[in-house]
Structure formats: structure tokens, C-alpha cells
Amino acid sequence: MKIVGRDILEKVHSEAKASPRLRMNYNIHESLDEEVHKLLNSLQPGTVMPIHRHLHPEKKETFVLLEGSLEVLKYDDNKKIIERHLMSHKSGNILCEIMPDEWHSFVVLEPDTLILEIKKGPYVPFQEIDILK
User: Fold this and answer.
1) Strands 23-27 and 95-98
2) Which of 28, 44, 122, 133 has the CB geometry, 3.0–4.6 Å to 22, for a possible disulfide?
3) pTM (2 d.p.)
4) What is the DSSP letter of 22?
5) pLDDT tens-digit series, residues 1-38
6) What would the pLDDT profile of 106-124 be if each residue is shown by its tens digit?
7) What three-state secondary structure class fits 29?
8) What whole-number distance in Å separates Cα of residue 91 and Cα of residue 77?
């Protein structure tokens, strides 16, 4: 049994604030080779998430907003925003599922925004084809 409590959340928020990337994850899965990856992501305003998609291997990305707020952006092949969704407990939008091959990014709106991310493993680093330039 694995329990994630406030102590772990405070640690990951602190690490995110100290990170040059302004984000930090806490892996719930134990190996990058596992079939399902479950991780907490602490996100701070100003973090830069490149416009990207998930092709290798083809997989959906699902996240549940636990704390804070962010805006999810979907793009066409020319970097034009074609959808934007406010994710917050006030708006009622707390779950987002991004399909394979959808260009997306997000903007963090509050300090210590926390999401639970679930996606198919194993871990494959971004390839050149996965980032929209």
C-alpha cells in the first residue's frame, strides 16, 4: 500500500518552486517500464510547457486537477489555439483527457497547482516530431 500525504505534497511543491523548470513530479509508479504511469505534478506559474503531442507510443494523457488552476490549450498544426479550457474547482473542470496526436500545452494560473497524471507507459522521452516549433 502506498499513501501520499501532505508531507509529500509540500516537498514536491517546494522542489517545484526551487526547480529552474518551475515544476516537479512525484512518481507513484515504481519503474519507468511499467504499463501505467501515475504521477503527481506540482506546477508553478511561469513554467514553460512546449506545445507537444504524444505519439511514441501512441497514448492518451489524462489528468485530474487536485489543487490550483490552469488553462489547457489545444493547437492546430500552425500553432493556432483551437480550444482553451479553464481547469479549476470553481469552474468545475477537474479532469482532462488529451488524445494521441493532439498538440497541447497549458498555462499555470496559481502557485502550487497540482495534477494527478495518468498515461500509458513505458516512458519515452519527447522526440523531435513530438514538439511543435
Assistant:
1) unpaired
2) 44
3) 0.93
4) S
5) 999 999 999 999 999 999 999 999 999 999 999 999 99
6) 999 999 999 999 999 888 8
7) coil
8) 28
Which single residue is written with the C-alpha cell 505519439? Answer: 55
Q: What is d(CA 76, CA 40) in angstroms, rounded to the nearest whole number?
A: 28
pLDDT tens for 82-102 read 999 999 999 999 999 999 899
Closest by alpha carbon to 50, among 115, 107, 4, 94? 107
> In the chain, which residue ranges form alpha helices assigned H by DSSP?
6-18
Q: Which three cell numbers stand for residue 127?
A: 522526440
The angle subtended at Cα 4 by Cα 95 and Cα 114, nearest 5°, is 35
Tell me, what amino acid is at 24? M
Determine the Cα–Cα distance for residues 42 and 40; give it in Å rounded to an integer: 7
Which amino acid appears at position 103 of this protein? W
Alpha-carbon span 44 to 29, nearest angstrom: 23
What does the DSSP 8-state code read for residue 126? P
